[in-house]
Amino acid sequence: MQVTNVDDEYSESAVHLAAQAPGRLMMSPGRESAAQPAEIQNMDAVEEPHLGDFRAFYESLPPGPHWFMFFTSGLLNIVDRALRFLPQGVSVVLVGSSLPEEELGWLRRAHPECPFHHVPLLIDDKTIWEFLFATATEDFGWIDVDCFILDSSLLDEMQEPGDRVALSGTFCFAPRPLLRTHLLWTSIDAVARLRAEVPTSPTTYSYTLTHAQRYPEHSFCRILRADHIAHIGKVIDLDDRNQPVVGQSGILELYSNGITLQSSERSRASEVFSGSTRRLFPIYDTLVVAQLVLQSLGYQSRVVRGGISDISAAAVHWKSISYHRRIGQDLGDLTASERQQVPRHHRWTLLADALLMFEFLETPDPPGRYDRYARFLSDRLAQEGFTLRTARTELARHLTDAGVDAATLRADERWRFLHSDR
Questions:
Q1: Which residue, 124, 126, 125, 117, is CA-closest to 96?
Q2: Residue 330, SS3?
Q3: 406 and 393 in contact (C-beta within 8 Å)?
Q4: Range list of β-strands (E), 24-169
Q5: CA 408 – CA 414 distance, rounded (Å)
Q6: H helical segments located in 297-369
Q7: What is the pLDDT of residues 38-95, one digit of tens each?
Q8: Which residues fall within 8 angstroms of residue 240, CB to CB, at 6 or more apart?
Q9: How far apart are CA 128 and CA 101, in angstroms?
Q10: What is the DSSP secondary structure assignment for residue 88, as one 8-state letter?
Q11: Model pTM?
Q12: Residue ranges of the chain with pLDDT lower than 70?
């Protein structure tokens, strides 16, 4: 089966949009808008008041260094455990979006030690990255809500200064080492240089207007400008349509069925999709365009410890902790063979999410809606053929196979949700 490429369907719009001059900066530095389509200008207008509130919150924080952790509703079971895995003395700033009052109350009671800012509007992590680029005045860190830190020295190592280092992180794309956002330390000097010379957002980018990779209804990818493409072309090879020649993780490709794959996984499309599925256009993942432009300006993305897998002795990143619930709504209608095509990491994420949810319900006064989440996850475990005991056993085996110390899993209370005698 051949997956059709439909580059011709968008090439004219891509050339037109890429030829635009750099947009002026909005009143909020770092957020380009004027040369973008009306939908993107509307996105910025909707978010602008919330950016002002975030700026006021940021200015009220004590001196850093600070690490920011963002989350939306339904993830307190993950937030609570991620905070327990952080080394003592680390300043974590929590940023929530569209949380109901019962979750806000639980957070204030359970974690009064963490500065917390709530954005009433439903936004995603990309918007908070834009807010940070627009407001931060000192270096800062980012920890995904589903990233558990196992080695207490890792965060210190990431903060070590380096000559012309823009970003430091442990998780990276390939073959070119571009950093993934799961755990990052950001140089504010590099951000200032980027904003001054080639105004670039840390968000996702594409060649034409698209809602892909943005789940809030008002949100869109930003569109590449001619100066972006000129700088990207200094770092990676582009073809005559200004698209990457070689498959690169971190640069996604959207297909006509609405699914995106890494461009480095193009060969998988013929195995997974039907013959009528067409490849549409590339989308640059969060911070990928920013990194490529910074690299063209002489900065580097520093890979700490040579890069680590999603699960290692240093850190565990569960990957798509909220996304797996959204696709889980549809899995009951899939055949066994179709279910096997779902990415394997969703299996481990399901196990972790479910076990952490069941334990979270034992905390004092959990929000009432978490009973509903627990029932959904229990049904998903049954769909996949797991009991509570086999889920614990399977997840513990997966962690130890990936390098997590087995004795630590048994003895450390933070891994209590894996204990099979409960």
A1: 117
A2: helix
A3: no
A4: 66-72, 92-97, 116-119, 140-143, 147-149, 165-169
A5: 9
A6: 323-331, 336-339, 345-360
A7: 999 999 999 999 999 999 999 999 999 999 999 999 999 999 999 999 999 999 999 9
A8: none
A9: 21
A10: T
A11: 0.90
A12: 1-35, 322-345, 420-422
